[in-house]
Specification:
This protein is of the alpha+beta class. It has helices at 10-38, 41-51, 54-80, 82-98, 102-105, 182-196, 254-265; strands spanning 114-120, 128-131, 137-141, 146-149, 160-164, 169-176, 200-210, 213-224, 227-236, 242-250, 268-270. It has a domain at 112-270: 3-Layer(aba) Sandwich (Protein Transport Mog1p, Chain A).
């Protein structure tokens, strides 16, 4: 991989070569153990005898060519039969995708239990106020813990976004003028999450009373873009629309950040 690279000095090249040679010596012991476990002494004698025959010598002389041509043949076959693979996989993919569709995720008969504790109010420390100019709601937050940020940095569809000062927690509040209930909103929220990743686990789901407004609370673990996140989300369906309060942090930080996440969520209040 390295010997012969441009701008490589002879000293470096020799050092790498010597390192590789030492590896061969070390591997000899390992290969002896491997072969000893799989073959008897008679097996090995017969192998050695075969590789000293005309055909055996021809195999060892041509093994690299055979390997290279075999790889190319496999690549050509795969390339020429790609459509056949897609045809075989299409029903499987469609069935898999169906599990994550809005229709499959919607269960109008689901009964949401009341979580314990059920009633929450805004924390006394949440003295700073955000007042929406588009929809009738406000958010009280603790300015020693959170700040408002430009939503285009995280979600351009959001009405308002917050970030903790230690940059561990993010809150995105999405408000839409839609007519839907909690069951429909749950299905939409999960469909959107499954569109981002299929590695989703609902850890907790149920109803809370927050500032005299019933909300659906879902705590979710999800693996997104090679990062494990924990979400503590609130979903509301007032008569004028729907609201999603999406609050998340790195899953490894959740225990340390859980109270902070719940505090920003509990600052939401409908007018």
């Amino acid at each position: 991989m390295y010997v012969g690279e441009e701008n490589m000095s002879q000293e470096v090249s020799d050092a790498i070569s010597n390192w590789v040679k030492s590896g061969f010596v070390a591997m000899e012991d390992s290969m002896v153990i491997i072969y000893d476990a799989q073959f008897s002494e008679q097996d090995i004698d017969e192998m050695l005898a075969f590789y000293h025959t005309r055909v055996g010598k021809k195999i060892t002389q041509n093994i690299d060519i055979i390997s290279d041509l075999s790889i190319r043949a496999g690549e050509n076959w795969a390339k020429n039969n790609k459509e056949a693979l897609f045809e075989k996989m299409r029903p499987v993919i469609e069935k898999e995708n169906e599990k994550y569709s809005y229709e499959s995720l919607l269960n109008p008969e689901e009964v949401f239990e009341k979580l314990t504790p059920y009633v929450y109010g805004r924390p006394v420390e949440s003295a700073s106020l955000y007042k929406s100019t588009t929809f009738p709601f406000t958010v009280n937050y603790d300015s020693t813990q959170f700040k408002m940020i430009d939503c285009t940095l995280v979600n351009g569809l959001a009405d308002v976004c917050f970030q903790s000062l230690d940059e561990q927690v993010f809150t995105i509040i999405i408000v839409e003028d839609l007519n839907a209930g909690l069951h429909e909103l749950k299905a939409v929220a999960l469909r959107n999450m499954y569109n981002a990743t299929k590695e989703v686990e609902i850890k907790k789901i149920g109803l809370l009373n927050v500032n005299e407004q019933e909300v659906l609370n879902m705590v979710i673990d999800a693996h997104v873009n090679n990062i494990d996140f924990t979400y503590d989300n609130y979903y509301l369906t007032p008569i004028w629309g729907v609201m999603q309060i999406i609050t998340f942090c790195d899953a490894a930080e959740y225990k340390n950040q859980a109270s902070k996440m719940r505090a920003i969520n509990n600052g939401i209040k409908l007018k």
